[in-house]
Specification:
Blueprint: H1 13-24, H2 28-35, E1 38-39, E2 42-43, E3 45-54, E4 60-68, E5 73-80, E6 87-89, E7 98-101, E8 107-111, E9 114-120, E10 122-130, E11 139-149, E12 153-163, H3 172-179, E13 183-184, E14 192-199, E15 204-211, E16 220-224, E17 230-232, E18 236-240, E19 243-252, E20 267-271, E21 276-280, E22 283-284
């Protein structure tokens, strides 16, 4: 594993502050170790590409597997109040016409008073690839930029390069990761999802009202804008009987730009103690 300095993605102001505060906990000596990708003499996180063979649809199944040192964690695609969302570069990949990822349901952590969302020990991220030229080899090459945290936080860059094996059988780790994805709205018994929009202090306020059974215990909703031109503030969640209410503010990445929100592109994930639920789009309400 290697690490290299890279710019923090555009996070909401308090998330960036939280990330910087977490990194500030690192001593000068630890910062030097972080640049080498090691803490002491041990690798904090290791990446490998898993083979899952061909599907009946003619697509390739693969996965990125991150193995973290004991006690370390990394972040989900929406990292919470403080964290570094992972990003990917696929330069050098070959024969890829389309690609889709399946994120396993993440965990919610409390770190120094901040709520963060991610994984510990291991993350298997399934990737289904539609080849540009059917029947020809597929090469998965690139890098993943991510944050890993324990008592200190390290921004890291992991490189991978693997030609997928079309003759590989079903991989139990990939099967398990797909099985641990959030439920769809239909699977979770969601009967409606409506969103009210109104101008906010910095962008557009969203109030989502989701008619669904409880996902168990304390439910935490995350609203993602579905647009690279917007980012979301903290989502506040409360249950009112059979309705879960989630509120957030969507703000433009570029200051001064309009916060144009497309309800059909909003993605709402509900994280409960029994299961998680993935809801795409909402209607006016």
């Amino acid at each position: 594993m290697t690490t290299a300095p890279f710019p923090f993605p555009r996070l909401r102001p308090f998330a960036l502050l939280g990330a910087l505060c977490a990194l500030a906990l690192t001593s000068t000596a630890s910062q030097a170790q972080a640049q080498s990708g090691l803490l002491g003499n041990d690798e904090v996180v290791h990446i490998e590409v898993l083979d899952g063979g061909m599907t009946a649809r003619g697509t390739y199944m693969g996965a990125l597997r991150l193995t973290l040192k004991d006690g370390w964690k990394t972040y989900w695609r929406s990292p919470g109040d403080a964290g570094i969302p992972p990003s990917f570069t696929w330069r050098g990949s070959r024969n890829i016409g389309g690609m889709s990822m399946t994120w396993p349901a993440p965990e919610v952590f409390q770190t120094s008073g901040y709520r963060t969302i991610g994984y510990h020990d291991q993350l298997v991220l399934p990737i289904e690839i539609t080849p540009e030229r059917p029947g020809q080899p597929v090469r998965l090459k690139g890098r993943m930029e991510l944050g890993v945290c324990k008592d200190v936080c390290i921004p890291s860059e992991l490189k991978f390069d693997h030609q997928l094996d079309r003759d590989a059988g079903r991989n139990p780790a990939i099967v398990a990761a797909i099985a641990s994805r959030p439920y769809s709205a239909r699977e979770a018994g969601v009967t409606s999802a409506t969103c009210r929009l109104k101008p906010g202090k910095y962008g557009m306020q969203v109030e989502a009202r989701i008619a669904m059974p409880s996902a168990g215990g304390e439910e935490i909703a995350v609203i993602e804008p579905g647009s690279p031109h917007l980012f979301a503030g903290e989502t506040k969640t409360q249950r009112q009987g059979q309705t879960l209410v989630a509120m957030s503010e969507l703000m433009p990445v570029d200051a001064g730009a309009a916060a144009a929100v497309d309800r059909s592109q909003l993605r709402i994930t509900v994280l409960g103690q029994r299961h998680a639920v993935d809801i795409t789009g909402c209607t006016a309400g």
